[in-house]
């Protein structure tokens, strides 16, 4: 009976989105809300379309003059849909309860290409079940319009919620579940296996996720057609600290189309994992291995195999990387635009020199907390990287005002300069301000303002 009622009734309650004690849940007359509390848990419910007239005999209908004051009712349907398109999922559900016209407009398929839920107390599994069931009414068991699901920070999301997405949304292209630490490999495998068009996957902070792969059933069934490949191009596994080289090997073998990969704070990754990655994923444009303390110059040699395809690289706080690794990158990755090497204390002026002379199109460079970089390195940057827009030198003990003046005199397009905790004079900062008009200077000198 409960399943039947779910099919016949339509509008998901805002109780799916907010806990029962959230202000604004009750209507103006203090009537019961659309959710109930069982041991403090939000229980999702559904509602039928709102009536066109108020049925209670004691409630008077609005006068003609009062109706004329409701200017929003004069807007055509396409304008209302445009307004609704800016609302998050929970507010859209509320709008569907205002009147019959709003109900019909709020469930326009064009508004349901994205579901966005946030919050630690939301019963996300139930919300996704009810929403997808409503969206599947016209196409039973399949939600063809839904392309994006964002449930970041929803700690109550479990494998059950991802199973719902995997089974009902074959056209899914983007999934973000960052910070949802209760999901496991099995649920992720189901999503990537049943959603063949998935291109963007963010599982950052999901500590139980150690791999991305097809299920065994999908591998057997789809291998003749897909070659066991997953179409993911963007993968963020930041803070998946259980990920190891073997898991990265499996990811690389299945996700050969990767162009953006972020492995920040995946502390178990080593140079061997990067070797696996470069064997299969030769199209990577952006790569982050910041805070991966076991990555060394040998890993940089592997990354350098990406050659001119690599545009963005973050190796921040990888203490085993020295000038040798920087030389590998500079020699082969000539089209590098962004490099974050903050905290790589083995980098010296020689590494910066080689980088500046070979990666002349560099636009953003962070070499903060590199105590061996001095004004000599800045001079090489200034004379070769004229397109530099962002430069961070935070806590570079050997930097002085002379090096900054050389940079400012040559890099006129500089837009951001970080010299916090550097021994730089006020005159040097003023010189930068005069020559780089659009530059925002982050500093710790109280005399400069």
From TrEMBL:
Location in or out of the cell: Cytoplasm, Cytoskeleton, Microtubule organizing center, Centrosome
UniProt entry keywords in alphabetical sequence: Cell cycle, Cell division, Cytoplasm, Cytoskeleton, Leucine-rich repeat, Mitosis, Repeat, Ubl conjugation pathway
CDD domains assigned to the protein according to its UniProt record, in alphabetical order: F-box_FBXL7
Pathway: Protein modification; protein ubiquitination
Gene Ontology cellular component list: centrosome; SCF ubiquitin ligase complex
GO aspect biological process, one term: SCF-dependent proteasomal ubiquitin-dependent protein catabolic process
Subunit structure: Part of the SCF (SKP1-CUL1-F-box) E3 ubiquitin-protein ligase complex SCF(FBXL7) composed of CUL1, SKP1, RBX1 and FBXL7. Interacts with AURKA; interaction takes place during mitosis but not in interphase. Interacts with BIRC5; this interaction allows BIRC5 to be polyubiquitinated by the SCF(FBXL7) E3 ubiquitin-protein ligase complex.
Role: Substrate recognition component of a SCF (SKP1-CUL1-F-box protein) E3 ubiquitin-protein ligase complex. During mitosis, it mediates the ubiquitination and subsequent proteasomal degradation of AURKA, causing mitotic arrest. It also regulates mitochondrial function by mediating the ubiquitination and proteasomal degradation of the apoptosis inhibitor BIRC5.
PANTHER family in the cross-refs: F-BOX_LRR-REPEAT PROTEIN 7, PARTNER OF PAIRED, ISOFORM B-RELATED
Family: Belongs to the FBXL7 family.
UniProt-recorded name of the protein: F-box/LRR-repeat protein 7
Organism: Chionis minor (Black-faced sheathbill)
């Amino acid at each position: 009976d409960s399943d039947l009622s779910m099919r016949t009734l339509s509008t998901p309650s805002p109780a799916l989105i907010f806990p029962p004690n959230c202000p604004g849940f009750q209507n103006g007359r203090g009537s019961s809300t659309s959710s109930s509390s069982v041991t403090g848990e939000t229980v999702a419910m559904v509602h039928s379309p709102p009536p066109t007239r108020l049925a209670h005999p004691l409630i008077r209908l609005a006068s003609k003059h009062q109706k004329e004051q409701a200017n929003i009712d004069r807007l055509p349907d396409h304008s209302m849909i445009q307004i609704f398109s800016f609302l998050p999922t929970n507010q859209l559900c509320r709008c569907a309860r205002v009147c019959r016209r709003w109900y019909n407009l709020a469930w326009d398929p064009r508004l349901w290409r994205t579901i966005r839920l946030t919050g630690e107390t939301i019963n996300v599994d139930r919300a996704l079940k009810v929403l997808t069931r409503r969206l599947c009414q016209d196409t039973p068991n399949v939600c063809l319009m839904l392309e994006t699901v964002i449930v970041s920070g929803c700690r109550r999301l479990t494998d059950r919620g991802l199973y719902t997405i995997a089974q009902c949304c074959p056209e899914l292209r983007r999934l973000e579940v960052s910070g949802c630490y209760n999901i496991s490999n099995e649920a992720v495998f189901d999503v990537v296996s049943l959603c063949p068009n998935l291109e963007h996957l963010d599982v950052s902070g999901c500590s139980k996720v150690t791999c991305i792969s097809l299920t065994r059933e999908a591998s057997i069934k789809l291998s003749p057609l897909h070659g066991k490949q997953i179409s993911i191009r963007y993968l963020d596994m930041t803070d998946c600290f259980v990920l190891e080289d073997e898991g990265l090997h499996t990811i690389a073998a299945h996700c050969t189309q990767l162009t953006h990969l972020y492995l920040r704070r995946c502390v178990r990754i080593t140079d061997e994992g990067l070797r696996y990655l470069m064997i299969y994923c030769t199209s990577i444009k952006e790569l982050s291995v910041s805070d991966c303390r076991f990555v060394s110059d040998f890993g940089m040699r592997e990354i350098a195999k990406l050659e001119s395809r690599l545009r963005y690289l973050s190796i921040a706080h990888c203490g085993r990387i020295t000038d040798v690794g920087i030389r590998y990158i500079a020699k082969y990755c000539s089209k590098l635009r962004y490099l974050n090497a903050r905290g790589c204390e083995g980098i010296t002026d020689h590494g910066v020199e080689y980088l500046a002379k070979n990666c002349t199109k560099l636009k953003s460079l962070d070499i903060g907390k590199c105590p061996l970089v001095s004004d000599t390195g800045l001079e090489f940057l200034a004379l070769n990287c004229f397109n530099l827009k962002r430069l961070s030198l935070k806590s570079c003990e050997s930097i002085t005002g002379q090096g900054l003046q050389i940079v400012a005199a040559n890099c006129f397009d500089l837009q951001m300069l970080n010299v916090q905790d550097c021994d730089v004079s006020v005159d040097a900062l003023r010189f930068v301000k005069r020559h780089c008009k659009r530059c925002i200077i982050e500093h710790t000198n109280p005399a400069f303002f």
